[in-house]
Amino acid sequence: MKFRFASVLTAALMSVGFAQAQAPTELVIATVNNGHMIEMQKLGKNFEAANPTIKLKWVTLEEGVLRQRVTTDIATKGGQFDIMTIGMYEAPIWGKKGWLQELKTDAAYDVNDLLPAVRSALTIDNKLFAAPFYGESSMLMYRKDLADKAGIKVADNPTWDQVADLAKKIHNPPNVYGICLRGKPGWGDNMAFLTTMVNTHGGQWFDMSWKPQLESKPWKEAITKYVDLLKNYGPPGSSANSFNEILALTNSGKCGMWIDATIAASFVSDPKQSKVADQMAFAQAPTAATPKGANWLWSWNLAIPAGSKKVDAAQKFITWATSKDYIQLVAKTNGWANVPTGTRKSTYASADFQKAARFAAAELKAIESANPTDSTLPKSPYVGVQFAAIPEFQAIGIAVGQQMSSALAGKITVDAALKASQVAADREMKKGGYYK
């Protein structure tokens, strides 16, 4: 009897051990709550079916909350996440600090198919530390019917003076506002747009000694032009408008022009979303003194925290989610107009994609023209087009964004806003030890 009980107990323990050994590896993925990422979650079941030993667990957060959570987790080595969705701002900073696992790719992944501008921004010392899920630049989106009516042919590479002239001629409130631009404060919000405007006017955030340049002539010229444009030809309440607010205005036909993320092109040209889809046309972001840094460069990327215990499984998922096959899967499931863009040459080479996306050529041209290592007319010590890839930039960008929004709202003058911005930036850079 004792022998029989021991045999049963041994068999039971072996069974439990076998079950534990076969338990799937759970990958906790932190991501942002936008359309492309939500679709990735839905399609994740295809990955799980092909990889039964891996289970996906999603933590989906609003962009600001996501940044805070993943930054805290990686800086404290919290280990909450196996895969993080990070931006082009974080990738080079964290890669240099040794906070990210190098990504290893095989021949099938075809790393050379990644767009050079995006790939280089995620690479340090020839090592890829994050894989792009989708990327974007910025572009001019405009109502061709209104431009035609005004007798103006918009150039493929317009200048800011030409944009101002068109805004004046098509401004017809409250039916149509000549131009819509971001005004809501934030380093990745109004400052993403304004930095490109400053760049093309010949400005920069910091000189080669890391001294802030916010009271320089290019900053004053760019911000004055921005405030005047929106004050004279923009919608009411522009200082509170971000991407979603302007998208709604554009899709209702109320924005004659909008300069923003290329990702918006797919929405404003979609008849299901936009009343003026057939009228929308696309050009490069406007230039002034120089074409350098006139349009931004951004990507949302998947990365593995250094010290992860699940590197192989995480690598496998990232390879799948950022592959050519994944783009084909989205195209097959939802149509070519809905695939993640801004990452691979092969996407833009696809005749099906070109047919579905009227903006494809302009978007690719914008992305390819952006150079994070050479985005300003005077030489700059930082990497980044619409941001400076240093840890202090978040605080500086937020502080300056508040001042620019106040100037736009008419609460303070442009000169006062720039002076306060210079003081704030100077304080942060001294605190960071860049100079005394």
Task: Give structural attributes.
alpha+beta, D-Maltodextrin-Binding Protein, domain 2, two-stranded antiparallel sheet, 13% strand
Q: Nutshell version of this structure?
A:
The chain has 2 domains: 2-135 and 298-356, D-Maltodextrin-Binding Protein, domain 2 (3-Layer(aba) Sandwich), CATH 3.40.190.10; 137-296 and 363-431, D-Maltodextrin-Binding Protein, domain 2 (3-Layer(aba) Sandwich), CATH 3.40.190.10.
Total E-strand runs: 9
Rough outline: globular
The CATH level-2 architecture of the largest domain is identified as 3-Layer(aba) Sandwich
How are helices and strands ordered from N to C? HEHEHEHHEEEHHHHHEHEEHHHHHHH
List the helices and strands and how they pair.
Blueprint: H1 2-22, E1 25-32, H2 35-50, E2 54-61, H3 63-75, E3 83-87, H4 90-97, H5 116-121, E4 123-124, E5 127-128, E6 131-143, H6 144-149, H7 160-170, H8 190-200, H9 217-233, H10 243-251, E7 257-261, H11 264-268, E8 280-284, E9 297-303, H12 311-321, H13 324-334, H14 345-349, H15 351-356, H16 360-369, H17 393-408, H18 414-431
Parallel strand pairs: 1-2, 1-3
Antiparallel strand pairs: 3-9, 4-5, 6-7, 6-8, 6-9
Helix pairs in contact: 8-9, 17-18
